[in-house]
Design a protein that fits this description.
The strands form eight sheets. Strands 17, 19, 20, 22 and 23 form a five-stranded antiparallel sheet that branches. 45% of the residues are buried. This protein has four domains: 5-102, Immunoglobulin-like; 114-210, Immunoglobulins (Immunoglobulin-like), CATH 2.60.40; 222-316, Immunoglobulin-like; 325-427, Immunoglobulins (Immunoglobulin-like, Sandwich). 0% of the residues lie in helices and 50% in strands. Strand 7 and strand 8 (96-102) form a beta hairpin. With 428 residues, it is mainly β. The chain has no helices and 33 strands. The N and C termini lie far apart (73 Å).
């Protein structure tokens, strides 16, 4: 232990009630090299705000010599600014401390944006997912859109991964989303990872617990969520597919809960099939809303089973723009979960209308590509060319002799990222 030294730093030293600061204790030897496997004891010397302190992974330093704790400011004596003092110590060395100020609720908030993080799950097994939502607001509490949130795994003992959706840019509600997937390192132990989200001048953090093998809900199920299309006009439909799988393959019979993580467009969400089928899939439909029609907005939809979740971002385009767009994608006769095609190979007509970006002027001679995205059945052709009304059509034939079931048909035109992608569900 001779010559070891400990230092303590925090991501923020001034917080309002409920905000947190990530405290990092760094242990080095006499030559300044990081010390791994050292126990660090975190404790309060003073706790006037009623704060809480969460130590990660038992306070043991990692390969960088770092041990981490998360300080969450309390709400005691809310009208006064108070100071909490956190100490970090190791055996045989002088302790170190840091002061974190909890501001008064009646005081003028500090300038700049503020960030908070939340997770739909905080304890999960290896391979499972959690949706992480960062909310960015101004000092006066107004959501900040268009702000880039930087998500990182500040500590990663489980071997987790973190995928940022839509570049980490906040939507009109000030929200940005990432998906955390718990890793499989040291499977016999319960481990903790720390996620940090930051914008200029503000940082938030979350502690995620990766449970020991056999100790987590969901049986190691991972959730993948996709949407077709992901970019669409107001009023247009997207089909959301949630796929549940574990180490041995798809998992059938799970109940999936679909919900909005953010809904800036005023969209609607309808569950088609809440129970995963033999392929591990459940379906929902998203219909883009008309709120904020002059700008591009993003909505996010999550799908959750016990112990795992996933999410997908959908972009609602402005009312007018450049390039060609699919204005509508219809079927005749119209099918629903209650009104299905007969299961004897019956047909329905699928019609796509293509217009200019003004959503009025028809586009003549545009090639539309049709495909079966999921489900059974057949199409009379894989491409069709628009007529003078901007319409292209094909015939879908149901599989016959089976059912009930659902088939997702996709239609695309060149420039799919600007509104040239559409989908329909046919019920048979």
């Amino acid at each position: 232990m001779m010559g070891r030294k400990i230092t303590l730093d925090g991501t923020q030293t001034e917080l309002s009630a409920g905000q947190n600061s990530i405290l990092t204790a760094t242990v080095t030897d006499g030559d300044g090299n990081p010390v791994r496997g050292q126990f660090v004891a975190f404790s309060y010397i003073s706790n006037l705000s009623g704060a809480t302190l969460t130590t990660l992974n038992g306070g043991i330093t990692d390969a960088s010599g770092n041990a981490i704790a998360v300080h969450n400011a309390g709400s005691l004596t809310p009208t006064a600014g108070v100071e909490d003092i956190v100490e970090a110590r190791i055996a045989g060395a002088a302790s170190t401390a840091i002061t974190v100020t909890r501001t008064a609720s009646t005081a003028a908030p500090p300038a700049g944006n503020r960030i908070g993080l939340a997770a739909d799950l905080s304890s999960l097994a290896a391979g499972q997912n959690a949706v992480i939502t960062a909310t960015v607001i101004t000092a006066s509490g107004v959501p900040v859109g268009g702000e880039t949130v930087t998500f990182i795994l500040l500590s990663n003992t489980s071997g987790a991964t973190l995928a940022t959706l839509s570049g980490g840019v906040t939507d009109a509600g000030g929200k940005a989303i990432a998906v955390y997937t718990a890793g499989a390192n040291t499977p016999s132990l319960s481990l903790q990872d720390t996620i940090q989200g930051s914008v200029s001048g503000s940082t938030g953090a979350l502690v995620m617990t990766r449970t020991a093998a056999g100790g987590g809900a969901g049986g190691g199920v991972g959730m993948t969520v996709t949407a077709v299309p992901t970019s669409l006009n107001a009023g247009a439909l997207s089909v959301i597919t949630a796929t549940a799988a574990n180490a041995t393959g798809p998992v059938a019979g799970l109940t999936v809960t679909f919900a909005f993580v953010t809904n800036s467009s005023g969209a609607t969400l309808t569950t088609v099939n809440a129970t995963t089928d033999a392929s591990g899939r459940a379906l929902a439909t998203y219909r883009a809303g008309i709120a904020l029609p002059a700008v591009t907005v993003q909505d996010a939809v999550s799908a959750t089973v016990p112990g795992s979740a996933g999410a997908v971002i959908l972009t609602r385009l402005p009312v007018t723009g450049t390039g060609n767009r699919i204005l509508s994608f219809t079927e005749t006769p119209e099918t629903t979960a209650a009104i299905r095609l007969p299961t004897t190979g019956s047909n329905c007509l699928l019609t796509v209308r293509v217009t200019r970006g003004d959503l009025i002027t028809p586009v003549v001679g545009e090639t539309v590509t049709f495909s079966i995205y999921s489900g059974a059945g057949s199409l009379s052709a894989l491409t069709a060319v628009t007529d003078t009304q901007g319409d292209a059509w094909v015939i879908f034939t149901g599989p016959g002799g089976t059912g009930p079931g659902e088939t997702v048909i996709r239609a695309t035109i060149p420039g799919a990222l600007t509104g040239g992608d559409a989908a329909r569900i046919i019920y048979w």
